[in-house]
Structure formats: C-alpha cells, structure tokens
Amino acid sequence: MKEITRINHIGLRVKDLRTSRQFYEKLGFKFIVGPVGPEPVAIMEHPSGVNINFILNSTDETPSNVLMDIPDKHTGYTHIALEITNTNAVEEQLLSHGIAITEKVEFEGAKFFFIRDPDENVIEFHKPAQQLC
C-alpha cells in the first residue's frame, strides 16, 4: 500500500505509568499526555519522532516477557529497534542511568545491542553498517 508513510506509534502494555515514564525519560522521551481514553493510554515521544503509547491496563504480574523468555515461541511483536548514530555514546548513556545491556551483536558491519524496560519489553539500539565509524 503506497499510502502508508511511516509508523505512527508503538503500543506497549505496561504495569505502572510512573515507572515506565521514568525509564523512557532516561532514553530521551518526553511525556505528552495521559492517562486518556477507555484503555487508558499515556503517550511519550522522542525528539526523533518515535512515539510510544503506554497501554495502562496490565493485570499480568509475570516477571518475564512471554514472547522472548519462555521456550514456547508465540507469535507477536518481539522488540522495537531504534536506529542510532554512535554506539559508544549510547552505551555510555545507558550505563550511566544504570540500564543493563543484555546482549551485543555485530553482523556484517552492523552493530546492535539490546536492553529491557521495566516490563521486560526488549529495545534494540541499531547502527547500520553504512554508518560505522
């Protein structure tokens, strides 16, 4: 469909707005509004234009991510990938905020690494091969 122009937002079901908001603020996201609507939803946006809608109706107290942390592989979105320009700078910023890097990968010149948010959602930071420096 040629009418699709970009991803408008990412929806993440979270347990606690305050905890999620504090975490994503460390990544540079700004709080926009919320909770609003029947779900309810809160919205944060990064200056790059990446928009996250936190869906605030989680009843799950499971400490794991059912799409990533159990042997059975269920269908669904497994992670978001945020493109970056400088892996060293991002790693240093994450570590300065006490955010652990859970995995690092280099593949055909591309570098990427992963973290988890407070609800165990996976976030990838990705530097494409053509931007390596």
UniProtKB/TrEMBL annotation:
Family annotation (Pfam families): Glyoxalase
GO molecular function, one term: lactoylglutathione lyase activity
Residues annotated as domain VOC: 6-128
Record flagged with keyword Ligase: no
PROSITE patterns: GLYOXALASE_I_1, VOC
Keywords: Lyase, Metal-binding
PANTHER family: GLYOXALASE_BLEOMYCIN RESISTANCE PROTEIN_DIOXYGENASE (PTHR36113:SF1), LYASE, PUTATIVE-RELATED-RELATED (PTHR36113)
Identification of the protein by name: Lactoylglutathione lyase
Protein source organism: Nitrosomonas aestuarii
